[in-house]
Design goal:
The protein is α+β, with helices and mostly antiparallel strands and 125 residues long. Helix content is 26%, strand content 20%. Keywords: DNA-binding, RNA-binding.
């Protein structure tokens, strides 16, 4: 079967078009339920074909792509971009991402008073 025809495993296809860094990461995402094909949870060996919608939750971001071509081997970035249509929402601007407050190094473990202040800031109390 030539490239671009038939079906391919979803984990292999997601890796081949460079949506994940490794195939094992793609398979782990499938097992964890972070990959959906046409709205249904996908197991790593589930086949995908042209026209299928693949939703991938990766690196804190949802990727929504429609399969336009099947590839089984990892391809270069320009070729990979031709294998799917990206319908993902744009990433949030950097200003919108809230920074996690960090304690200064060497200040030690927070006291009870410090902990209560942190809880109050977070809105837990």
């Amino acid at each position: 079967m030539a490239e671009g025809e038939g079906t391919a495993r979803v984990d292999s296809w997601v890796w081949a078009v460079r949506l994940t860094k490794t195939r094992s990461m793609a398979a782990a995402a499938c097992r964890a339920g972070h990959v959906r094909v046409n709205g249904e949870r996908a197991k790593p060996a589930q086949p995908v074909k042209p026209g299928d919608e693949v939703r991938l939750r990766h690196a804190g971001r949802d990727r929504i792509v429609v399969v336009s071509r099947i590839v089984r081997k990892r391809v270069g970035a320009p070729v990979a971009a031709e294998c799917f249509v990206d319908n993902s929402p744009p990433p949030p601007p950097r200003e919108a991402v809230t920074a996690v407050p960090q304690r200064d190094r060497g200040t030690g473990r927070p006291t009870k008073r410090d902990r209560r202040e942190m809880e109050r800031l977070r809105g837990e109390r």
